[in-house]
Amino acid sequence: MRVIICDLLPHHKSPMSEPARVPKGDWTEAVAKSEEHLVAADALASAGNHAMAFSHIVLGLEEWMKKNILHAVELGMTKFGTPDKVDPLRVRKQALTNHETKQMTGLASILLMLPFIERMKFIAQAQSEGRTPTREELEAKFRVDCQRASKLAPYIPRLEDLKQAGLYSGKKTSRGRAAVSATQEEFEQFRAILAGWLEFGRWVAAHPPSKAEIEEQKGKMADLRTKLRPLAAKAVETSAASERR
Predict the structure, then answer these.
(1) Alpha carbons 35 and 148: distance in angstroms, whole number
(2) How far is CA 233 from the centre of its chain?
(3) Left, alpha or beta for 48 (phi > 0: left; psi -120 to 50: alpha)?
(4) Are 175 and 161 within 8 A, CB to CB?
(5) Do the Cβ atoms of 242 and 49 come closer than 8 Å?
(6) 111 near 152, Cβ under 8 Å?
(7) pTM for this structure?
(8) What is the residue-wise DSSP string for 127-190?
(9) How many secondary structure helices (H) and strands (E) does the chain include?
């Protein structure tokens, strides 16, 4: 699993770069289910039910995040377990079933990467047209995408409420908040996000990483764990001290 930005540019393997034989597991089912939610959302939107269509987009995003977790574990990038000072990058298995965890971590990571992903897409598109984008064009594009990510960030804690409002009856959600349904504009914004990442996922599936690339990424993850251990240890100590109070 390469650094995500690199996957957006044309990838040419050398003769010595052997594709990794990564066995397909549950993460492929998560991708398929995410695709199904997108199809269902489009059908509902065509019928004018954008509130329920939005709910299926949220479910699709949850499945996409589930895929990321399962794939990372399968490739050996991380392990299931309780994050602690020894290994702060371990993932709790509950993350696979907790809706809000998948929504928050999934959308947060997507929005964090959005300006960089869109920048690479912009460059790739320009190169396919036989030109090199100017620095001014790239800076303008980056500003626009940062603004887009900032505009969507407040939705991170609201996704579950919007999803429930589209799926269930009642004036309040299970969290006691007003059941306000998503609008057509909100549906279209998040549909574009899910559709874009599913398209990206298909590209990656058609251009699998080499064993060398996977090993390189594992090394980077190991370095990251080392850097995060002091912070994780402090967090564990703070949490323990809080529980004793």
Answers:
(1) 24
(2) 26
(3) left
(4) yes
(5) no
(6) yes
(7) 0.67
(8) HHTT----HHHHHHHHHHHHHHHHHHGGGGGGHHHHHHHHHS-SSB-TTS-B-PPPPHHHHHHH
(9) 7, 0
Determine contact, residues 8/121, Cβ cutoff 8 Å.
Answer: yes
pLDDT digits (tens, 9 = 90+) for 138-176: 999 999 999 988 888 888 888 999 999 999 999 989 888
CA distance 5 to 142: 14
Question: In the structure encoding, which two tokens stand for residue 111, read together?
Answer: 């929005």
Q: Which amino acid would we find at residue 70? A: L
Are 156 and 108 in contact by the 8 Å Cβ rule? The answer is yes
* Nearest in space to 198 (alpha carbons), one of 72, 60, 40: 60
Residues making up the chain, counted from first to last: 245
Query: Tokens representing 29?
Result: 């089912």
CA dist 118 → 47, 115, 155 (Å): 31, 5, 20
H/E segment holding residue 116? helix 99-128
Element (H, E) at 33: helix 26-46
- CB-based contacts of 184: which residues, under 8 Å, 6+ apart? 45, 50
Distance between CA 58 and CA 194 in Å, rounded? 9
Report residue 52's pLDDT band, with 50, 70 and 90 as the boundaries.
Answer: very high
Residue type, 213: E
Query: In what helix (H) or strand (E) does residue 43 lie, and over which residues does it extend?
Result: helix 26-46
